[in-house]
Design brief:
Number of strands: 8
Structural class: alpha/beta
Number of helices: 2
Radius of gyration: 17 Å
Largest sheet: 4 strands, mixed
Oligomer: single chain
Order of helices and strands: EHEEEEHEEE
Length: 142
């Protein structure tokens, strides 16, 4: 058995800004972005919602994250999950953590722990919870 969770994020009108930030921070690629106005559901879009994102796809390595803006009457703030970034470069972990934390909330500063050379947790400016985990290098034997 292989478990491969699908990550789909909901936003309240900020999906495009979020996905552009994530693409930049995570060296990802915006593979697809469709506005409500250009979607098959255009007639269902709230007034002034045509430029909001109906569906977006971000590719980061072999991982795909999708998302979109939900109309205000259907949107609920994210809760009960965190995206964990497993990293192996402490310098890159610092860079990504600082970029995601900008205008957000740091729950645990990025620092050395007993299990990792760096670990930190934050909620970004869009309300998405992230954990950065940079494992310790394996001890080499002679």
């Amino acid at each position: 058995m292989k478990l491969n969770p699908h990550i789909s994020l909901a936003f309240n009108g900020q999906c495009e800004a979020a996905f552009r930030l994530y693409a930049h921070c995570l060296d990802g690629t915006l593979a697809f972005m469709l506005t409500w106005g250009d979607s098959p559901a255009a007639a269902e879009a709230p007034p002034d919602w045509g430029a909001k994102i109906y569906h977006a796809t971000l590719k980061v390595g072999d991982t795909v994250i999708t998302g979109g803006d939900l109309p205000p009457d259907r949107y609920e703030p994210p809760k009960g999950f965190s995206i964990v970034l497993e990293m192996d470069d402490p310098v890159a972990a610092e860079r990504v953590f600082q970029a995601l934390a900008e205008n957000g909330r740091i729950d645990m500063p990025l620092r050395e722990t007993f299990w990792a050379s760096r670990f930190g947790a934050l909620v970004d400016q869009f309300g998405i919870s992230w954990s950065i985990n940079c494992e310790r290098a394996a001890a080499q034997t002679s």
